[in-house]
Amino acid sequence: MKNIILWLLRISAAIILLQTLFFKFSGHPESVEIFTKLGVEPWGRIGTGIIELLTGILLLIPSTVFIGALLGIGLMSGAILSHIMVLGIESKGDGGQLFMLAIVVLVFCSVLSFVYKQQGINLWSKFVKKA
After folding, report:
1. 10: nearest Cα among 113, 112, 106, 98
2. Which of 7, 20, 24, 34 lies 20 to 30 angstroms, CA to CA, from 82?
3. How far apart, in whole angstroms, are the C-alpha atoms of residue 59 and residue 79?
4. pLDDT at site 127
5. Which phi and psi (to 5°) does residue 37 adopt?
6. Rounded distance between C-alpha atoms, residue 37 and residue 68, angstroms
7. Residue 129: predicted pLDDT
C-alpha cells in the first residue's frame, strides 16, 4: 500500500509539472505575461520549463526520486513566493489554481524527500567519497 501511495505522489507531482511545459515552451501569452511580470522573460520561462521537465523525469525514475523531490521543492518554493510577492494568488482569473497546484507539488515533494532521504544520504556519501 505504501508503494502505491508513493507512486501516486510521484506521478501526480510529475504530471502537474509536465502539463505546464507546453505553455512555457510554446510561448503561450499567459506564460509570457507571468514571466514578464517577474522580469525574467524569456530565459526564466524557458529555464524553468527545462528544470520542470528534468524534475518530472527524475520523480518517475526510482533511483532519482530524492533529487527530483529536492528540485521540486526548490521550484515550487520559488513559484509560491513569486505568487505571494509579485503575481498575486490569482493569475488571469484562474481562481488561484496555479498557486494551489504549486502548493500540492511542494507538499508531495516534501513528503517524497522525507521518505526517500536514505537515497539522498547514499548519493551524498558517494559524492563525498569521490571528492
Report:
1. 112
2. 7
3. 18
4. 83
5. -60, -35
6. 27
7. 76
Give the pTM.
Answer: 0.94
Contact predicate 22/30, CB 8 Å: no
Q: What is the 3-state secondary structure (H, E, C) of 24-85?
A: HHCCCHHHHHHHHHCCCCCHHHHHHHHHHHHHHHHHHCHHHHHHHHHHHHHHHHHHHHHHHH
* Max Cα-Cα span within the chain: 51
The predicted pLDDT at position 128 comes to 85
Q: At what angle do helices 97-115 and 2-19 cross, to 10 degrees?
A: 140
Predicted confidence at residue 52, as pLDDT, reads 98
Counting Cα atoms < 13 Å in the Cβ hemisphere of 91 gives 23
In this model, does residue 131 exceed pLDDT 80? no
Q: How far is residue 83's CA from residue 87's CA, in Å, rounded to a whole number?
A: 5
Nearest Cα residue to 122 out of 76, 63, 70, 62: 63
Cell of 14: 510529475
Dihedral class, residue 96 (left if φ above 0, else alpha if ψ from -120 to 50, else beta): left
116: its cell numbers: 526517500
